[in-house]
Amino acid sequence: MNLYDLVKKHQIINKFSALQYSNFAVALKIAKLKKEVEEKVKFYSDQEISIANAYGEKNNDGKLIISNNGQIKFATLKDAQKFEELISKLRATDSDIECPIKLNIKNDIVSDNLSLTPDDILMAEGLLEIVLDEEK
Fold first, then answer.
1. What's the whole-model pTM score?
2. b/e map of 101-124 (b: 16 or more CB within 10 Å)?
3. Which has the closest alpha carbon to 1: 128, 119, 132?
4. 54 burial class (0-12, 13-18, 19+ CB within 10 angstroms)?
5. Which candidate, 117, 104, 57, 45, places its Cα nearest to that of 82?
6. 3-state class of 64 per DSSP?
7. CA nearest neighbour of 80 among 70, 72, 92
8. pLDDT at 13 over 70
9. CA distances from 1 to 56, 82, 99 (A)
10. Cis (ω within 30 of 0) for the bond into 118?
11. pLDDT digits 0-9 by tens, 46-87
12. Is 57 helix (H, G, I), strand (E, B) or coil?
C-alpha cells in the first residue's frame, strides 16, 4: 500500500483501535498497526511540508503563500513542476505496512453497540480483513 492510500485510511484505524477486544492477540496487532500508521502519517506530513517549503513561494515573513482555495503559490513553473514531481513520488512510496490483520467481528470484538458502516469496512480494506465468523 502506498503512503497516500495509508494516509487516507488513518482515521479508520483510530475507530478500530477504540474498540474493546476479547482476543488479546488481535488487540495487540491493532495497537501495533495504529502506532505504525501514525508514524507513517507523520513522516508523510513532514515530507509534504518540507517539499512545499522548498518549492512554494514565500511572503516577506518567509511563510508559504497559500491562496484562498488552499493552493500553494509558486514563483515559477519549474518550481510547481518540481513540487508536483516530488509529491507524486512521496504519494507513491510503499508504506511497508504488514497487512491485513484478520478481524472476526463476532469473536474478537467485545461490544453490544458496534457500529460500522459499509464505508468503514471499505476504508479498512487492505489494513484489516474483516470476517463475520471463523471460516471453516
1. 0.83
2. bebbeeebbeeeeeebeeeeeebb
3. 128
4. exposed
5. 57
6. strand
7. 72
8. yes
9. 28, 24, 9
10. no
11. 999 999 999 999 999 999 999 999 999 999 999 999 999 999
12. coil
Q: Read off the amino acid at residue 38.
A: E
DSSP 76-110: SHHHHHHHHHHHHHHHHSB-----PEEEEHHHHB-
How far is it, in rounded angstroms, from Cα 7 to Cα 80?
23
Query: What would the grid cell of residue 12 be?
Result: 479508520
91: which 3 cell numbers? 504519494
Q: How far apart, in whole angstroms, are the C-alpha atoms of residue 56 and residue 18? A: 38
Position 127, amino acid = L
Residue 68: φ, ψ to 5° = -60, -25
Task: For residues 49 and 36, give the distance between their C-alpha atoms in angstroms, rounded to a whole number.
Answer: 20
Cell numbers 500508521: residue: 37
